[in-house]
Amino acid sequence: MNKYSAVLFFCLSILGVQLAVADPNIIRYPRPSAKTDSHFDYINELLTEALSFSANKYQLLPSHAQMQQGRAVHEMKNGTREVDLLWSMSTDEREKSLIAIKIPIDKGLLGWRIPLVRSEQKNLFKDVKTLHDMHAYSAGQELDWPDVKVLESNGLTVATANSYEALFSMLEAGRFDYFPRSILEIWKEQELHTGKKLSVSPDIALHYPAAYYFFVAPNKRQFADDLNNGLEMMIRNGQFEKIFLKYHQTSIQKAGLKQRTVLELRNPFLNPANMPLSRSELWFKP
After folding, report:
1. Helix 239-255 crosses helix 40-51 at what angle (to 10 degrees)?
2. Pairing between strand 261-264 and 204-207?
3. Which residues touch 201 (CB under 8 Å, ≥6 apart)?
4. What is the pTM of this model?
5. Where would a tag sit more exposed on the chain, N or C end, judged by fewer CB atoms within 10 A?
6. b/e code 210-244 from CB counts within 10 Å (16+ = b)
7. pLDDT averaged over consecutive 10-residue blocks of the chain (286 residues)?
8. What is the largest CA-CA distance in the chain?
């Protein structure tokens, strides 16, 4: 501390100002903008179990303000310490700027999408057989989700909203035709929005290569190592699979993927060469 800093510290102390020192073991994640996060209970149990193997004891706290993905990524890249941890669908761009823990916590299921539609249009897609058939319909997505570019790159029309919750009202109002949701999300979301008369389409599924990873800010390398090591331990002792099935087995069964017409999409924003595809235990196979 130089003499000027020492004088400033002394003056602030006289005024009763507390100088906070950042605690390296406090890890902040984005406070969700949605009223409910259908993943959070699962994510919380994974994190708690994985970090229990570490000698470092971490405290996980939400960010001070509500935060969408785009801003969270910006805060992490710039080392503001407002956000240290994010769980999100991966892109090559995100993997270059943040530390990706390359264990797909969704086992790839975020890439299996089923349309949520208005109840009076439940059978909207019963005659759809090809991706080209889907060009006649518009999808809804949150503005900064990676899925927007994936869908658009496959020739699909996408309407966007600034918030997740707004999408359900927009679908109900007919602002777009369907809201493609992963099979891990859609049943809970339908339940939480029963007043909007929305139904799960029974006929098709969209599929594209996807990985839902934990991302860690570059200035939190020790935390990233501890989290990665803990998840690997869980995979070896079977706890990862046990927790995954606890939260998702019912949804997988309800989706009935083998009875649906599956439309395959490209994902040009995630290089398969960078994915741990050789580790079959990390991926769901329908």
Report:
1. 160
2. parallel
3. 114, 115, 116, 117, 122, 123, 124, 125, 178
4. 0.83
5. N
6. bbbbbbbbebbeebbebbbebbebbeeeebbeebb
7. 43 40 84 68 96 96 88 91 94 95 96 97 97 97 93 97 94 98 93 93 96 96 98 98 96 95 96 93 90
8. 77
- CA 218 vs. chain centroid, Å, equals 19
As a whole number of angstroms, the distance between CA 252 and CA 101 comes to: 24
* pLDDT at site 24: 81
Nearest residue to 64 (alpha-carbon basis) of 56, 52, 72: 72
- The token duo for 160 is 């966007």
With CA atoms as reference, report the closest residue to 111 among 266, 277, 224.
266
Side chain identity, residue 137: Y
